[in-house]
Amino acid sequence: MILKRTAAALMAAAMMFGTAAASGSNFIKAAAAQDRNGVCSYTYVDVRKDANSSSAAKGWLDGGDAVSILGEKYDSNGKLWYKIQFELLVGYVPADSISVNGAKAASSSDFESYLDSQAFPESYRIYLRELHKQHPNWIFKAQHVGIDWDTAVSEETVVGRNLVHNGAPDSWKSRAKGAYDPDTDSWYQLDTGWVAASDGIIKYYLDPRNFLTENYIFMFENLSYDPDVHTKDGVEAILRGTFMDGGYTCPDTGEWYNYADTFMEAAEVSGVSPYHLASRCRNEQGVYGAPQSLGTVEGYENYFNFFDVGAYATSTMTAGAMGARYATNYNDTYMLPWTNQYKSIVGGSIFLGNGYITKDQDTLYLQKFDVTDGGNGYFAHQYMTCVFGQANEAVSLLKAYSDEVLDSAMEFKIPVYNNMPSTRCPKPDSEWDDNDYLNDLSISGVKISPAFNSYTESYTAKVSADTKSVNVSAESSSNTAGVYGTGEITLKDGKNTIEISCVSPAGTTRVYKITVDKAAKAAAKKNTKNTSSKYDINGDGKTNITDVVVVAAHVSGKKHMKSSAEKKADIDGNGSVDIADALLIIRYIKYGI
Question: Of the candidates 358, 338, 360, which has an alpha carbon nearest to the alpha carbon of residue 348?
């Protein structure tokens, strides 16, 4: 479907073939090098046109980007560069910016055995090996969700299930029915400032392989409490330097507690990772604390809401005030009202655990994409519609963790789908229009059914038996899209399927079909002349076996015909009525001649 990538690959192959013809052995060396793969080990590196630092940059790599190594080249200073390919980007980068793992030399045999035991596909391993080198204590678990990739994509691309902001690139926005109005070339607002996400951007964020880097791996962090992994020291490292670094006194009871101890207790009660609880509170309340976590909201003094449950802005109240008001409710399950810090942290953690963590949605990824059944089905129980929300939260988690925490045995549950694409799904190119809809489709002089609609892709039409061909016309919604399959189409008898493809500049393709039913030719008439009376010997207005009997009786002498009938019965005109005339009547009855 993505024709742009296919075309680019063909062009690259043609260029390599041309180079082979010109330089012979150099091509063989490059082809051998292509067997190697690697991962960008720099946070950022320019991809240059040639192997030197002053050459023009063609693009860049981010840390964790997987590349194919096409060849090697030394610059004038003796520095080694790799010629690499990343998706459609081909160019040179310093060799030391790429961690070569095609031969698995970078990974220990023990880690390779572990990856085997987890049944991670190879398309995952090239990233996991690099993360293992950076964080050897991290634990990566393959979560085989048992869902076919296409099924997950189909469910997540339901209009309204995933959104992007209205200012996102057009290639990120859906043009499906209910999301986009082709007549006005505009998107429907499904939430204030938000529109339906495109299939391409949903696939990108749904594909776990796109986020197996240090920046984003935390969307897969196991948020369930594991006493063998989560420690008080780790919680203290997260809270260090914030208003939760140390202890607090409950205003209603006068009791003193330590924040780290409170989060550890909250983890035990709720089943939620204390690291997640502590980092979420840090992200929600900031380093110095917000009024709702300090108990200083005007009118709601000494009411606390560390997790901002129910905290959203209204026309008359701030989000913080709404959160403090929520803390005044009564609910024993969640230890409400939250009249002190302890009750807010422990009760709020139970609220979080009951909502998602204990329903098998114990990672940020699973809270965004509901691909597990924790008793509430699949795909519907998703805590936000923003398609990239979990990625943003993952970055926030990373920032909240200290080096001490990052060096610990953190656990990551990484989903694996059935029948995944062999390579990770690319991020839609924001510079290209992906509008692959038709604005009009017709057959000259022929009615199609139903009436044309951009979102309807199948039509029927009927033509007469003498119609040899039809002329099909189509117009794309985007003036830069290509339309194929139109013009004069020759028809055969019966059903004819005509396919008209609309290919957007981004390479996406939509196929419209018209089934044209050509009527069958009428059966040829046996005899169009009024010759039957010639053989109607007995004059009853019919030609049948009776006329044969009359002739036969006359010939045998049993019953002679009248002279007028006898003259008519001389069909062959030989001057007498005989058996040959009877045979001519029989031939007419049988064959019409």
Answer: 338
